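User: Sequence in, structure out. Go.
Assistant: Echoing your sequence, followed by the structure tokens.
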Amino acid sequence: QIIGLLRSNLKRFAVTIKDLTTFIETDNFTHDHESEEIDIHEVAGNVKQDLGNLITDTNARLEIVSDENLAFSFPKKNFKSMLYNLVSNAIKYRSPDRTPEVLVKLHKTGGKIVLSVSDNGLGIPAESQNKLFTMFKRFHDHVEGSGLGLYIVKRMVDSCKGQIKVHSEVNKGTTFTIVF
């Protein structure tokens, strides 16, 4: 029992170190730094591969929808990190009552890029939504994590002068929308 507890704590510590490393790497981020053309299907494919075990273990369905020939520049590493965190959370915070479904949409509106990640998961209570992007804030103990993922996403969005919004209903799901 003690060994199991130690393993669990070491696993959580490793996740926290990984997330802190990502945070440090993105802390000095500027939108112009290493921007390159983004192919959403390539980046989403990489994220899907990175989350392969989680997707397989949960039978999650991940769908990517984007405007045809959509072209935009962004630091690829940071775009992948944002997408990874949002998709990972969508699957981790799934409802036990249904198969996880995640929809990633990317389009251009009024000269701005709009990325949305929607799920059919647990949802987030309205009273917790204003604390979502706080460092080390976690709302569910049954899911492994450090409480840094959404904080990092918010920092990346802020640094490119973008906006992130959340719409969520408990037991129905959540949509994160990023405009930049």
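User: And one key feature?
Assistant: The chain has one domain: 2-179.
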